[in-house]
Structures are given as structure tokens and as C-alpha cells.
Design goal:
The protein is an alpha/beta fold and about 160 residues long. It contains six helices and six strands, in the order αααβαβαβββαβ. Strand 3 and strand 4 form a beta hairpin. Helix 4 runs parallel beside helix 6. The termini are far apart.
């Protein structure tokens, strides 16, 4: 009798707590659990790598969104190749997006590969005289894009057509 009562209370509590979601029953993580990662592609060449202060600024912005930053080193010379590598990395890690930078005279281009919809977006950020200010600007651009993805909103960047 006592065992039946304990079992009944356990089942009732389980049902009140929502039971097992369909995604958990199928062995899949819930989307919000899967999507809490961002991959940052680092170039193989150290001279074109972003300064550590920039990665720290990005990490600080992502912590506020409860998003983990994963670093991967890749050859970032051709946009089409890098875009395919970003898609592969996003699938392999379950990351919501993959980001990398392109250094241009007086600007940094932030590339943002969004897993959902397989979209490649970009935004140019003018490089100021202060490395700290440039790092913070890039970090805020990335945070805004990640935040939009998490909220299901449109990422306000320019879509890039990859050849």
C-alpha cells in the first residue's frame, strides 16, 4: 500500500514537472541547450590573429548571454572555403553560429555564419586608433548578432553571397 502511494506521488510529481519533453524522449537536446555555443575561427597565421584583448571582450559579451565561446584554427584565405568550414564546424559542434574576422585597411570585417538557414552575414567595423575600442566594437557586433539569433529575430548584418 505504501509502495503504491509513493509510486502515485512520484508519477504525479513527474507530471507536474512536465514529464519528459519530446526532444528528450527522442534523444535530442532541446534547441536552447544545443544553441548556447559560438565558434570563433582563428587564422593559422599568428600575425593576422585577433589580439587577446579582442577575444576577451567577445568572451565577456557572450558570458552575459550564457553562450560558450569555442576557438578553432582554420585557413581563412578564401571566403568560399572558409564558409564551408564554418558550416562544417557549426554542424560538428552544434554551435548556433560561427564567426571569423577579415582584416582590411582601416576596417575589420566580421563574418557571421548562422547555422539556422545556413546564412553568411557580414559587417564592417572601422578600426579606431585604440585597440581596446576596436575590440569592444567587434565584441558588441558579435553579441548583437548572437542575441538576435537567440531571440529568433533577424540578424542586422549584410547577407553575403558565396560564389
Amino acid at each position: 500500500m505504501l509502495r503504491a502511494l509513493v509510486f502515485a506521488w512520484s508519477v504525479t510529481l513527474w507530471l507536474l514537472c512536465g514529464g519528459v519533453s519530446a526532444s528528450a524522449q527522442e534523444g535530442h537536446a532541446a534547441p536552447e541547450e544545443r544553441a548556447r555555443r559560438l565558434v570563433f575561427l582563428l587564422p593559422t597565421s599568428e600575425e593576422s590573429a585577433p589580439p587577446p584583448a579582442m577575444l576577451d571582450a567577445i568572451r565577456s559579451q557572450l558570458v552575459e548571454l550564457d553562450v560558450e565561446l569555442l576557438l578553432e584554427t582554420r585557413d581563412l584565405h578564401e571566403l568560399a572555403v572558409t564558409s564551408r568550414a564554418a558550416a562544417e564546424s557549426s554542424r560538428a559542434t552544434g554551435a548556433l553560429a560561427v564567426v571569423w574576422l577579415e582584416v582590411r585597411p582601416h576596417a575589420l570585417v566580421v563574418y557571421f555564419y548562422q547555422r539556422e538557414g545556413s546564412r553568411l552575414l557580414s559587417r564592417s567595423v572601422s578600426v579606431s586608433e585604440s585597440q581596446a575600442a576596436a575590440a569592444e566594437e567587434v565584441a558588441v557586433v558579435i553579441r548583437s548578432a548572437v542575441s538576435a539569433v537567440l531571440e529568433g529575430a533577424q540578424v542586422m548584418m549584410t547577407e553575403v553571397v558565396v560564389p
